[in-house]
Write a structure and sequence with these properties.
By secondary structure, the chain is mainly beta. Helices cover 6% and strands 37% of the residues.
Length: 422
Amino acid sequence: MLKRNFLKTVFVLGLISISFTSCGDDETINNPTPTNQVKTGELTANETWSADKIYELDGKVVVSDGVTLTIEPGTIIKGKQGDGLNASALIVARGGKLMAQGTADKPIIFTSVLDDIKIGQKTGTNLDETDAQKWGGVIILGKAKVSTKVGDTEGHIEGIPADASYGTYGGNDDSDNSGTLTYVSIRHGGITIGDGNEINGLTLGGVGNGTTINYIEVVANLDDGIECFGGSVNVNHALVAYQQDDAFDIDQNYSGTFKNSMVVYNNTGDEFLEIDGPENSTNTNGLFTIENCTFISKTNDGSVDLKSKAQGLIKNNDFTGLTKFKLSVKLEDDCSTVLTDAYSHYIDFSLKIETNKTDATLNVYTKSEDTTGAICTDLATTIQDNANAIYINAENSSNLNNNGVSQSEFENWTWTGINNKL
């Protein structure tokens, strides 16, 4: 807005009096509202999205192989509404790059067209932590190692039509680089397409550790906050808040690290962590790490679900309000043999839970492969006792200090922090 001194000059030409009025300190001129830029379909050449416009995603917007999308600090991207496979989403295909480098003062914001946020703002006023499923989300696909049930070393990502070639992820390059995301906030998204087929807030499929993901927020998402399908990318300073399924979901032999991150949970979601291991036979050696993270429950409830073949390390975290670690174990039909599963990895130390600040218990869930679902009660007590001994020796205790990350990392740039929801 511009203001200048008010001046009035009168010229008299014969019988005609002409008055000229200039802009002044007592007069306000509003800048024109910029036109929203609507984006749809595949991007086939490099593009830069600037902070002086709002970009609307109309359906799937795909950064194709060999293409780089650069998003300037402070840019706002809004997804249009749409059900199922028609939901809007930004997808970075294998070989594409997303360079979204915001700052604490100018975060890059993905949200819904229903959000009244305007250019130059960090938050709108009309949507809150209960407003989910207003658009899809952000999907990044790479060439790093995965272990998928169908395809083994490659997969087709959830939320994308099966005949869409840009939905493929996985490969053999753990150093693959899909770009950089820093100070990016993803809000009010998530779409359920079918059972086990959803668009998460941030989906990472086969993303390599050449990719930088640092200072990321996912808030008020219908499904998982961040889900990793294999890959080796490291996630630092991530905040997931008020999700309606899992906060961090790890599948298909993810071998990267979540570090200095936070979850805020209010009992509308499912788990703090849901972790599975490899699903096939080729890439089976990757180990995840969850380290120095803080998990806050507003309702003193929450769990960590360690499922089929989970393998990796959960260390030096602060689990505030966690009630239990759930550790699955499968037995043969006759209850004579423990099958390869989270429990077997726990007792051979390829799955470790150690030096976490928590008073949560470790609960082993026993089931047989019997089609009747019979539980092998004779072994249940022994299995639980074996797991408890390891858990206690690993020094998990509510008396530990200096675990986890400080909420100050997320106070001034996230929707959650600005709205006092940490």
